[in-house]
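Colleagues,

Please find the record for the two-part complex below.
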Amino acid sequence: MALAVQRLRYLGRRALQAVPIILAIVVCNFVLLNLAPGDAASVLAGEAGSATPEYMAELRQRFGLDQPFHVQLFHYLRNMLAFDLGYSFRHSRPVLDLVLDRLGPTLLLMGTAAVVAIVVGVLLGVLAALNLNGWRDTLISIFALVSYATPLFWIGLMMIVVFSIQLDLLPTSGMESVAAFYEGWERVVDIARHLVLPATTLSLFYLALYTRLMRASMLEQAGMDYVVTARAKGLTERRIVVRHILRNALLPIVTMAGVQVAGMLGGSVIVESVFGWPGLGLLAFESLFARDLNLLLGIFFLSSCLVVAVNLLVDLLYALLDPRIEVR
Amino acid sequence: MKRLVRAAAGALILAMAALPAAAQKKGGTLVMVVLPEPPTLASYLSTSGPVGQVAAKVYEGLLEYGPDQKPKPGLAKSWEAAADGRSITFKLQDGVTWHDGKPFTSADVKFTLMEVLKKLHPRGGTTFQALAEVETPDASTVVMKLDKPAPYILSALSGYESPMVPKHLFEGSDIRSNPNANKPVGTGPFKFVSWERGQYVRLDRNPTYWRKGQPYLDRIVARFIADPGTRTAAMEKGEVHYGAFGAVPYVDIPRIRTLPHIDVSTDGYGMISSLMQLEINTAKPPFDKVKVRQAVSYALDRKFMIDNIWFGFGKPSTGPISSNFQAAGLYEGKVRDYTVKDAVEIANKLLDEAGYPRGADGMRFKIVHDMLPYGDEWRRLGEYIKQALGNVGIDVTLRYEDVPTWLKRIFTDYDYNITSTFYYNLADPVMGVHRQYHSSMIRKGTVFVNGSRYSNPAVDKLLDEATVETDPAKRAQQYSQFQKILAEDVPLIFMTEMQFATVFNKKVKGAFDDALGVYSSFAGVWME
């Protein structure tokens, strides 16, 4: 009971600490993004192909770009504190709607990729460590090296060429079949089929990292005194690996995954653009080039919230894996 | 005899045109790939390509245009210009309704023209500059009252250029922030259903479309795929059926066009007439000297660019007006020819005469070339320009920035020497050409206008006269004079008439019967 209260109090304190951090991030982003030359009005007019000066002036006035910089910042922060992320004039929609639209597909893709990468990476790492310098170890190490070194976009395109065009097994791109518009379970299956290639492509890179990290971590733990003790106690090799070595070897993976999953949630521009996946990364990329600052700031705000949340989760997970680590 | 042959040929063509009508099939979903994803579907506020490609299926204009660019009935079944050119009377189609069931009337037309297009459309201010008033004697008659003759208006009434919007949904609201921007209600053959951001826009057949029997398709889905390689793959696999404006990159076209189910066409771009040009800062040395600009024009091999960078798509251009205007009599081909055999020698001679002799290292002066930030072709072009101008002793440094930075550099700061760019001539020079050369279009901060800051009173006068001239012969004479002057002055280096490629699945039929191509309504498109 006392432990639960302590954890809750810890959570509350960390959440409070996050507020000034996120605010600082927002201000930094706002200042940095405003340093970029050109503005949303000129991009919109540029896309239109032509515009009169009155039209340009009107656009700037409507976007609030005619205001001095500190007034713009003040307005933005004031809206922010009221949980209003603002309006994207480019899309004629509130920023929150646009971001939430993309959040589901992003979490689906990134979540799947992260789970696959961590589970398979850990498994391969354990296998390699148990078969040190054997053929399995060599094979796994080569696989990890190749996956890590190959550019993502190339893997993606090759996946499309092989599995989609040559073998005709999976769709090339998108999140669902647009000619069919499936409903119910058929739709779930359809989305799952569309998910295979992008999730595999994205997980390959991270998978390689976790494999190598897990292998090294397993080998390090295997040489520890407590393993010798366990062996002297007469425990089976299987029990030693699963209960003792593995559990301790997981800690660095959790640290690494915490950092990366938080980053992944911001989206992956490359995988999203190759597979036409409607994620946050591509939206951020497009809004940067369109100087749609309200939208971009909204995405950054959401990403920074996610990073803070995932970090907190990782800290709690430490305590679960290793009871010696306390949360206070 | 000659007339008889022509009549027979005409009858034959008509018969041939009528043939496929029998084969038109109902049903099916057409998936078109549009790039990039449009920010909104407000084609009454933006002329941006992707906006129009989708919105033109929903909104219609008063007129449509055949492949010969001659106007055909659209929402207006007939039209007549007064003899003095001061008014145009339109009779509207009967029984047209908006997608929400309300009738379409002359009040909608008046509202759209006066309150939306003339005031808010980026080109509307120019197109409808002479439009003083719209009269609506009854629900199906519209009379445009003009201050001065404006012959070009009849070329600008398509569903893409001047879409008709419903008065009852826009009146009394802020038109710019009206929610219809993201869920359009029009009169067109397809109704807006949904827009999944980052994925697709879905348009379904309008069952109460005023053209009986049309549209043939059940549905059009516009998909957005950011990666060019994936677009090609999706086209190859048959997941998408139609993509215009480089949806499939030029580099993939020679391969994909050999596939049995794929075809490539350069039709449907006739009312756009895109010209690739090098925009030059004529107010800054060394390009303030005409001879230097002419030298650059001589030094570049247009044929080489077309063959090697654009994979054979395009043809050399001679001046500010595309040869697509030959039929209208507005194109002048007899101007200074920069593609002569000894062009490089002439270029060297001109540069010597301009007072820029070669230095010890063989170079005359240094410039920076800003490459248009629209993709790979423009980088390849930049590399070619560096090499070709290096041959005549101009030392070129290349620079590639993102779009907003580039726009600001060229049209606000004027901080450049020479940049690659392209401009649409559009349906009439008044709309697409004047903005680049008239001195009144030197407008700091406004994009895609006279960024060269070229100012020539003789040119201004010719353009002003051609704007109001109703006699085609006199107008042709004015534009001919204009093109001759420009070919001498070269405030922009005229490079090529660009050809865009539409890649499509052979199942798609009837997509090229309209001058506007991808910007047409697709009412007559069907799938085999």
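The two ends of chain A are 15 Å apart (CA to CA).

Comments are welcome before we finalize the supplementary table.
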